[in-house]
Amino acid sequence: MKKILWIIVAVLVAGLCVFGYFRFYFVFGEGVRSGELNYVVRKGVIWKTYEGKLIQTGIRTQTDGVQSNTFLFSVADKEIAERLMLESGNVMDLHYKEYFGRLPWRGHSKYIVDDIVSIKEKNTTIDKQNEEILSTIAPGSEGSEQVIPGLY
């Protein structure tokens, strides 16, 4: 009878370990997200983790018009998080891993950024185009703060 009980306990413990591994440590997906880095902050009550937000522009099919999509992520590596803090506002490509579940000491999100693929300065071509159009409509007002409806 004791032998059967030990086998049942061993199977339950092994099953729990397998479940825990797949739930919290198995990489479900990985990829690269691109967008403008909004912020990276260090927060938490017991475990201080780095959390960030990437703004992706695009078109959502469920809504009308152009909407910005947000990518909320956590950063486990302190060096990467500190570098991201200095690059806020720039357009970047971030490599991430996706897990089925989140761990409180790893972050508040199931998306963990583990690498910075590229960093680009914010694209200002729209501002330059508006300035060129403004200079043709009203010469001499390139540096002014006038806003022409429909240009931006």
Write the layout of secondary structure elements.
Blueprint (H helix, E strand, L loop, with lengths): L1 H23 L2 E17 L5 E11 L6 E10 L2 H9 L4 E9 L11 E10 L4 H13 L15
Parallel strand pairs: 3-5
Antiparallel strand pairs: 1-2, 1-4, 2-3, 4-5
Task: Write structural notes for this entry.
It is a single chain. This protein has a five-stranded mixed beta barrel. The mean pLDDT is 82. With 152 residues, it is α+β, with helices and mostly antiparallel strands. It has a domain at 29-125: Nucleic acid-binding proteins (OB fold (Dihydrolipoamide Acetyltransferase, E2P)), CATH 2.40.50. It contains three helices and five strands, in the order αβββαββα. The protein has helices at 2-24, 78-86, 125-137, and strands at 27-43, 49-59, 66-75, 91-99, 111-120.
Produce a short descriptive summary:
With 152 residues, this protein is α+β, with helices and mostly antiparallel strands. Helix content is 30%, strand content 38%. A 5-stranded mixed barrel has the order 1-2-3-5-4.
